[in-house]
Amino acid sequence: MSHKTSKYAIIVAGGKGLRMGADIPKQFLPVGGKPVLMHTISRFHAYDKDLKVILVLPKEQQDYWQELCEQYHFNEEYQLADGGASRFQSCKNGLSMIPADTVGLVGIHDGVRPFVSCETIARCFDTAQEAKAVIPVLPVTDTLRFTGDSPSGRNVQRSDYKAVQTPQVFDIQLIKKAYEQEEKADFTDDASVVEHLGQTVTMVEGNRENIKITTPFDLKVAEVLVIHNS
Predict the structure, then answer these.
(1) HSE-CB for 191 with a 13 A CA cutoff
(2) What's the CA gap between 178 and 176, in Å, rounded?
């Protein structure tokens, strides 16, 4: 691959709008002294200061985000794209900010995963240079029970399963083409969208700290991780 290829990260921050009485969306909650989303953006620039970041945020949250950026003196570079009605639409909006003829790689990452390691990001981008579609995964440590075919369910071999994380990294032209498809219910992540084109997805090792912050418990874990990482 030539050195003229571009590298992007699309950080998707969904969550409900800031309606009166609604909780503050998870990506704006402070962890270790600053909002989750700022940690996430900073992590990608720590991996590569020249990486182009596109932040996808619901339109009704953008003013609040700008206020937070001023309050926390957050001035890292990124482009802002409007969130869509679904994650699929949000990703599509983010991808549309990348010029049509761009050659290179793009990582798509959950805004509420602020502890992805630079090593994990590097593994995904490095592998994607050849593989074109890469996801970080971890072994499943809990016992799993399948409940689809009976009320009582049955245990399944956890060695048959992996827990999938982000960033999921793709060849830009491939992922742009994939997102031209109609949205389908079985598109559960970006990898499933490119798999629908017949593209093989390659797995690399993720990192255990790369948790998705979705519950109050996760926030408590996040506070510990911030201290551990500082």
Answers:
(1) 19
(2) 5
| 116: CB partners within 8 A, 6+ apart | 40, 43, 109, 136, 165, 166, 167, 206, 207, 210
Do 174 and 88 meet the contact criterion of CB atoms below 8 Å apart?
no
Query: What are the angstrom distances between the C-alpha of 1 and each of 31, 91, 105?
Result: 38, 25, 11
Contact between 155 and 143 (Cβ < 8 Å): yes
In tens digits, the chain (230 residues) has pLDDT values of 344 689 999 999 986 655 544 578 899 999 999 999 999 999 999 999 999 999 999 999 999 999 999 999 999 999 999 999 999 999 999 999 999 999 999 999 999 999 999 999 999 999 999 999 999 999 999 999 999 878 888 999 999 999 999 999 999 999 999 999 999 999 999 999 999 999 999 999 999 999 999 888 999 999 999 987 76
**What b/e sequence results for 142-170 when a residue is b if at least 16 CB atoms lie within 10 Å of its CB, and e otherwise?**
eeeeeeeeeeeeeeeeeeeeeebbbbbbb
